[in-house]
């Protein structure tokens, strides 16, 4: 059965006031997919249907054959990274990463080692005691990625995760994200406004436009010859 081993939006339809979004598509397991489209087109809505913050009015969101609609957001096999990196300001880098394992922060010896290992993996050895306010934007992104690494959830959702970073640093983070996705085998959906992010990170892209999330297509071909709806958005006349 096609899509049985991936993330499937099966005839999904959702309305938010006057806004509607439809999706009938499959993301292969382990794929890295960019989600692009005009502002307000429904990119974050698409992610919310996977995280469970939003339920479809019709249709189903299915992961490896299981209807995610049965699972509350906290029980879904999902990690999420937003632009603000979801770091708690009063917790240290170590504690912010540890939250990914134990919300009550009661770690045993092995778990403590795992958190230290994840921090080291993203280049933050020795930064465990820092508060987010005392870290650069790039370092804060690394903390968020260490948490993703530690949680090892099969689906990773990112909503403009590195939008606040300069271009060189953003590329560095996208490359680290690519490595982490590879190491965890995660299926990744990343919302971005920047086509260069899609080029660098995502072999496939979902275009969200005019109330429809289209099935993923090859990013390279899409950006080389964008469809009319995307041309205006990309600033191509
Ligand atoms: N609770 C709500 N009630 C009514 N409309 C809503 C609600 N939440 C979102 N919308 C509308 O749904 C549409 C899609 O929003 P969404 O945040 O998914 O877009 P987006 O593509 O992620 O936008 P952006 O790129 O600007 O972040 C928007 O037009 C928004 O105004």
TrEMBL record:
Superkingdom: Bacteria
GO function terms (MF aspect): ATP binding
Any one Pfam family match given in the protein's UniProt record, by short name: ABC_tran
Coiled coil residues, start to end: none
Keyword annotations: ATP-binding, Cell inner membrane, Cell membrane, Membrane, Nucleotide-binding, Translocase, Transport
Record SUPFAM superfamilies: P-loop containing nucleoside triphosphate hydrolases
Domain ABC transporter: start-end pairs: 7-235
Protein name as catalogued: ATP-binding cassette domain-containing protein
Lineage: Bacteria, Pseudomonadati, Pseudomonadota, Alphaproteobacteria, Rhodobacterales
């Amino acid at each position: 059965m096609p899509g049985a081993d991936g993330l499937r939006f099966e005839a999904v339809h959702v309305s938010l006031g006057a806004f509607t979004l439809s999706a009938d598509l499959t993301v292969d397991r382990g794929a890295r997919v960019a989600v692009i489209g005009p502002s307000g087109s429904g990119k974050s809505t698409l992610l919310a249907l996977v995280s469970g913050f939003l339920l479809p009015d019709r249709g189903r969101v299915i992961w490896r054959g299981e209807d995610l609609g049965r699972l509350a957001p906290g029980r879904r096999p999902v990690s999420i990274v937003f632009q603000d990196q979801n770091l708690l300001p009063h917790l240290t880098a170590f504690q912010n990463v540890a939250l990914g394992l134990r919300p009550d922060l009661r770690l045993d010896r092995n778990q403590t080692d795992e958190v230290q290992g994840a921090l080291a993996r993203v280049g933050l050895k020795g930064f465990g005691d820092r508060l987010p306010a005392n870290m650069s934007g790039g370092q804060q992104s690394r903390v968020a990625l260490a948490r993703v690494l530690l949680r090892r959830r099969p689906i990773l959702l990112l909503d403009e995760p590195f939008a606040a970073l300069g271009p060189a640093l953003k590329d560095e983070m996208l490359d680290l994200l690519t490595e982490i996705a590879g190491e965890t085998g995660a299926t990744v959906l990343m919302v971005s406004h920047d086509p260069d992010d899609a080029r660098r990170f995502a072999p496939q892209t979902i275009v969200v436009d005019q109330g429809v999330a289209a099935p993923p297509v090859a990013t390279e071909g899409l950006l080389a010859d964008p469809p009319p709806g995307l041309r205006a958005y990309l600033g191509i006349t």
